[in-house]
Amino acid sequence: MALSRRVLLGRLAATGAALTATAGPAAARPAHGGRRRVHTGFDRLAADGYRLVDGHTVGVVTNPTGVTQDLRHLVDVMHADDRVRLRAVFGPEHGFRGTAQAGGSQGRYDDPATGLPVYDTYNKSGRELAAVFTASGVDTVVFDIQDVGARFYTYIWTLYDCMVAAVLAGKRFVVLDRPNPVTGRAAAGPVLDKAYASFIGREPIAQAHGMTVAELALLFNGEFVPQAAGRPVELETVRMTGWRRTDFFGVTGLPWVPPSPNMPTPDTALVYAGTCLFEGTNLSEGRGTTRPFELLGADGIDRRWAAAATELDLPGVHFREAYFTPTFSKFQGTTIGGVQLHVHDPEAFDPVRTGIGLLVTAKRVWKGFAWRPDHGIDRLTGSATVRTMIDAGAGPDEIVAAWQEGLRRFRTVRERYLRYR
């Protein structure tokens, strides 16, 4: 028997899914009509007959996002091609095939599909990671992972750690480029203070860096790798064609594969550089729902938070009072209140400023607000400044103003390494 509309909507609400009626503004859409089609670094490497790795033994650092236009994984494609001497795969956080949740990996195993040895890179760096590259027997390490544009997304630091380790192990390094899904228009947010360096921020870049992975590799190699490894890595980058700095993911014509379990859509990536800051608090950042990082909340929060956030008049976004029940992570199995972000104008939307505004208003309207005891918020923002200013009662404008000088300096450095105009 068909469900009535009322019953169906009631069941959806009970799950806490908080689904929107239409796809968000940055949602991936199939290429058709006059849409431009982006060709990734791997597309170009393959189209050129793999000449860049001809005669080399190759290992690939990748995850489920390393796919072709028709969703075949590049490891499967390269393994089946006699022109490529593929000998190893290196898996980051969540693993090569993506079976692990946040903070996990797949360990060392042989890939059932190809028989290739898969080595775990997660939480490895320096000499330890260099030893993994040496043990693999490859002479060229290829990197191909979809990034989301935020400093604390760990794959860019896997890139950095692998570049340093490649120097120490005497390996070539090749980066195959993919789009920054939230555009490469500008950098935004605070720049990391090295005193707060961790795996969610090794070096001083902005919270929203506005670069592709190949551009980041060039910046890392020019500014940071020589300090960590004694010299730059022998680096090659393969650029995309068809991508412009103003492109959101939806116009690329590329398929979206979740880079991690809690990054299901390009809409998630659009807000992530701001709302991931809630990982540093006792509020849920929406893990365990179908809209992670778009849904935020806690037990005891009500409509007052959405009202306070709306009063900030932040550009490009609306805030809706929302109630949801996470299936795992914070508040698992408990119905909690909070907000859902609805980005209606992605070009005007500033995720970092929005995240700060939401932190400020959450602390003002909910007496249960608390930072994580380990001050994880400081590692996320890159210093203690945001936390201490919010605790002192500062508003969003004052907090944003505090990081502008460091951001200006980073933008000057960043400009030297941009490859798409």
From TrEMBL:
PANTHER family the UniProt entry points to: HYPOTHETICAL 460 KDA PROTEIN IN FEUA-SIGW INTERGENIC REGION [PRECURSOR], PEPTIDOGLYCAN BETA-N-ACETYLMURAMIDASE NAMZ
Keyword hit for Signal: yes
Domain Peptidoglycan beta-N-acetylmuramidase NamZ N-terminal stretches: 58-266
One Pfam family matching this protein: NamZ_N
Keyword Signal: yes
Keywords associated with the record: Signal
Residues of the Peptidoglycan beta-N-acetylmuramidase NamZ C-terminal domain: 270-420
Domain of life: Bacteria
Stored PROSITE patterns: TAT
Record-level Gene Ontology MF annotations: peptidoglycan beta-N-acetylmuramidase activity
Family annotation (InterPro entries): NamZ, NamZ_C, NamZ_N, TAT_signal
Signal peptide residues on this chain, from the entry's feature table: 1-23
Protein name (database record): DUF1343 domain-containing protein
